[in-house]
Specification:
The protein is an alpha/beta fold. It contains eleven helices and twelve strands. The protein is globular and about 65 Å long. A seven-stranded mixed beta sheet has the order 2-8-7-6-5-3-4, with helices on both faces. Helix 2 packs parallel to helix 7. It folds into two domains: about 130 residues, Aspartate Aminotransferase, domain 1; about 240 residues, Type I PLP-dependent aspartate aminotransferase-like (Major domain) (Aspartate Aminotransferase, domain 2), CATH 3.40.640.
Length: about 400
């Protein structure tokens, strides 16, 4: 393997036959590590194993330098400065640090005797954002959970109406993990900045897939995760704006690493992997998006002409290139998934996929439980091939039509 960004994308190819793995179409849940990312990581497990915080000797300095390069690669993808990137264990920790850290700092340092103790989040946010807000409510903060439009997008008028002099922070997911819709970040950022309110976005699904510019979009805090962009699991980062400075209180006490905001020894191989994944995404994002959009549109066309009543959940145009959330009327999602074991798909967020309740996200879009229970998430990715998309369309259409012809569909 070579480490050049110009290398052709590696392909994970297999024919969907008996005793082979299913076609993987759940890339919004997680992605395989790109071989180029793995290659960059490997030396830091063995040859360059030093503690990056032990800079009194060469082993530590080599590791520290690798982490700073990775920090720069991550920052470049969102038009930020390297010192604005704080490494975390993933987007869940980054979201917790952003929301709780900002709230706790505001309570400890009131402005002119006035504590900003109000937070606004969409009803469709990731569970870790919603549960962070609920924890703050138990601590005495107030939270407004805004509904979304039927297409899954935020209403700017409703958001503006929810803001008050006590509002500290607004949290809106950049691109949705379940329905794939992309929120109007620049407009939300401009509104928040005009009101002196912090704007946090969970960008785990958007980072590396769509262009992000924290300055132009007036984003103050932005969370990312490595395993959504063909990097390793267990690593993420939080962008924290430096000018004007956003102040947070840490969640973890310890040795004061990451400028005191996130104590703990940094995992050099994982940081390097996230940096390399960001660099690859930056170099290939535009072409990859075009290819995924073509595959997505082909899949949707093939399914729509063969499955009567098929519905797309969320805005059809304002969505991630490889994302689809589809309702197959009268067929429970788990029944359909069980009928196509040759395809790896899911009902929604991996964090709540064990739940038998209809998706709270789809309910927030106004879908009745019958449709919310009949919805599947399809996530195409870097290694998805046209042949796999055609196979998936055939398998899903055949299974749906077979199930609708049955007198009794299991529920």
């Amino acid at each position: 393997m070579t480490s050049s960004l110009a290398d052709p994308r590696p392909r994970l190819s297999f024919e969907p036959v008996v005793n082979t793995p299913p076609v993987y179409l759940d890339n919004q849940s997680t992605t395989p590590v790109d071989p180029r990312v793995l290659e960059a990581m490997l030396p830091y497990f063995t040859e360059h194993f030093g503690n990056p915080h032990s800079t009194s000797h060469a082993y530590g300095r080599v590791a520290a330098e690798a982490i700073e390069r990775a920090r720069g690669e991550i920052a470049a993808l969102i038009q930020a400065g390297p010192r604005e990137i704080v490494f975390t264990s993933g987007a869940t920790e980054a979201n917790n640090l952003a929301i709780k850290g900002a709230a706790h700092f505001a309570r400890a340092h009131p402005e002119n005797g006035q504590v900003r103790d109000h937070i606004v989040a969409l009803q469709t946010e990731h569970k870790c954002v919603l549960e962070s807000c609920q924890e703050l409510e138990r601590e005495g903060f107030t939270v407004t959970y805004l509904p979304v439009e039927p297409d899954g997008l935020a209403s700017l008028a409703a958001l503006e109406g929810a803001l008050s002099e006590r509002t500290l922070l607004v949290s809106v997911m950049a691109a949705h993990n379940e329905i794939g819709v992309i929120q109007p970040l620049a407009e939300i950022g401009a509104l928040c900045r005009s009101k002196g309110v912090l704007f946090h976005t969970d960008a785990a699904q958007a980072f590396g897939k769509i262009p992000l510019d924290v300055g132009a979009m007036k984003i103050d805090l932005l969370s990312i995760s490595g395993h959504k962009i063909y990097g390793p699991k267990g690593i993420g980062a939080l962008y924290i704006r430096r000018r004007p400075r956003v102040r947070l209180l840490p969640l973890i006490d310890g040795g004061g690493q990451e400028r005191g905001l996130r104590s703990g020894t940094l995992p050099t191989p994982l940081c390097v992997g996230l940096g390399r994944a960001a660099a690859i995404a930056g170099a290939e994002m535009a072409e990859e998006a075009k290819r995924l959009r073509r595959l997505r549109d082909t899949l949707l066309r093939n399914l729509a002409r063969r499955v009567p009543g098929l519905c797309v959940n969320g805005d059809v145009e304002q969505r991630l290139p490889g994302s689809l959330n589809l309702s197959f009327p009268e067929i429970p999602a788990l029944t359909l998934i069980e009928a196509v074991p040759s395809i790896a798909i899911s009902t929604g967020s991996a964090c709540t996929s064990a739940s038998v309740e209809p998706s709270y996200v789809l309910r927030a879009l106004g879908l009745p439980d019958t449709l919310a229970n009949a919805s599947i998430r399809i996530g195409l990715g870097r290694f998805t091939t046209a042949a796999e998309v055609d196979f998936a369309a055939d398998a899903l259409a055949a299974a749906a039509n077979r199930l609708t012809r049955q007198e009794d569909i299991p529920t």
